[in-house]
Write a structure and sequence with these properties.
Length: 426
């Protein structure tokens, strides 16, 4: 598929169709955030164990790490609209099971672990299918703006979900709060049913016949080879893994920074979360209006440099300058939008539609796999050298990695040097 064929295939009045799906997914994200809050609160209240919370986080990552690469191959073989509907239905069904366990008083830590695993498995299929479908529903020139809008949505949810979850928990039972997720999932499913989600198809009859008879293993290797043969794409995938390796510990160590280095408490931690969310919202609004530089990889790399600067500010200021350190957290949220949004737009507009499920899942799985690995490394480093050390390492490495990428032609010209394929949309 060429860029022009992508734009020609998308109807002029594309917005109503796409935003119908988008609104449904926004409802679903709110419901999922409330479930996350409710379950974390229950685990915290019942156990008070950091190990239990860390285990829950790790369990939620496992499907994305181990199932993600293979899920992408299946997404490219199956109807993406059906994949999203089935994934949403599976997540809602898992939540219903958990609600029943709470009603009969049989809830347990292990039951929550299993439900988290199932919900994450559904997400491993849903999110790449949604991302891969977006490029077939939105004109190329608007993809960066949609990415900015998505970032704004996540920022809003990050701000409103905790207080809304706390309010609902204080008024209703845990199972009642969980039921909100079922309702929002049903809204998302209904809106998915009524929209048109285009599918990638091959150009000629011989290619179609080959696609139908191809094995899962063949399709998986095809996706891997496609990514490896594209130097710019492979370099960006490695950069994403490196950034995730650096940022995951920076996020998980924030409570320790607040309490040990800035001598703060719950109020300061809550303020920090709000400032981060505000940064994401403002950044998302600007990106959705502006769209970024014409060469979108420049916007993304500038965002990574900004993230590094934000981490250094927050990690290096003395304890009595906490409120100045919040500027680093604001910058972290603000610049994260410009790092992630254009990168998603690049992948959606340049990776062939028939390859997007595989490529997005492979990159996502690789980046997610860095999280537990980085936590294993960062913990001993922070214990031995101090919590601030990781922020200095991570911030500096982010800046250097992005600056180095600016001098790599394959990265700068990622939108121009992709390998040729023969796939279009119907």
């Amino acid at each position: 598929m060429t860029e022009s064929s992508n734009n020609n295939a998308i109807p002029e009045r594309w917005a109503a169709n796409f935003f119908t799906m988008w609104v449904g997914q926004a409802f679903s994200l709110v419901g999922s955030s409330l479930v996350q809050f409710a379950l974390v609160w229950w685990l915290t209240k019942e156990t008070g164990s950091a190990t239990v919370l860390a285990t829950a986080t790790l369990i939620a990552m496992l499907p994305q790490i181990f199932l993600g690469p293979f899920a992408g191959t299946l997404i490219d073989r199956w109807n993406r609209k059906t994949v999203m509907i089935v994934a949403d239905s599976l997540i809602a069904a898992a939540t219903l099971v958990l609600i029943y366990l709470f009603i009969i008083g049989r809830q347990s830590i292990w039951a929550i672990y299993v439900i988290l695993l199932i919900r994450s498995a559904g997400g491993s299929f849903h999110y790449p299918a949604m991302e891969a479908s977006t490029s077939l529903m939105v004109p190329k020139q608007h993809l960066a703006r949609i990415a900015g809008l998505n970032q704004t949505l996540m920022g809003v949810i990050n701000i409103i979900a905790p207080p809304l979850g706390a309010l609902l928990i204080s008024i209703f039972s845990t199972q009642a709060v969980l039921f909100v997720d079922v309702i929002t999932a049903l809204i998302a499913i209904f809106l998915l049913v009524i929209v048109i989600v285009p599918q990638p198809v091959h150009l000629n009859a011989q290619a179609t016949k080959s696609a139908k008879t191809a094995t899962f293993g063949h399709d998986f290797r095809e996706g891997w080879n496609y990514m490896v043969a594209w130097p710019g794409l492979l370099a960006v995938a490695i950069l994403a893994m490196l950034i995730n390796f650096l940022l995951t510990p920076a996020s998980s160590l924030i409570p320790l920074m607040v309490t040990k280095e800035y001598i703060g408490g719950a109020v300061q931690l809550g303020l920090l979360d709000s400032i981060f969310g505000i940064g994401v919202i403002i950044g998302g609004l600007i990106l959705s209006a502006w769209g970024g530089f014409k060469r979108r990889i420049i916007t993304s790399l500038m965002g990574i440099i900004g993230i590094g600067v934000g981490i250094l500010i927050f990690g290096s200021l003395p304890s009595h300058l906490f409120y100045f350190a919040l500027s680093g957290i604001f910058m972290l949220g603000f610049m994260q939008v410009f790092a992630n949004g254009p990168l998603h737009a690049i992948l959606q507009s340049t990776v062939e539609p028939g390859m997007q499920g595989r490529v997005l899942s492979l990159i996502g799985a690789g980046a997610t796999a860095m999280s537990p690995l980085s936590l294993l490394v960062a913990g001993p480093v922070a214990d031995a050298l101090g919590v601030r050390t990781w922020y200095l390492i991570g911030g500096t490495a982010c800046i250097l990695a992005a600056l180095a990428a600016l001098f790599i032609p394959a990265v700068l010209k990622i939108e121009d040097n992709k390998p040729g394929t023969s796939i279009q949309i119907e």
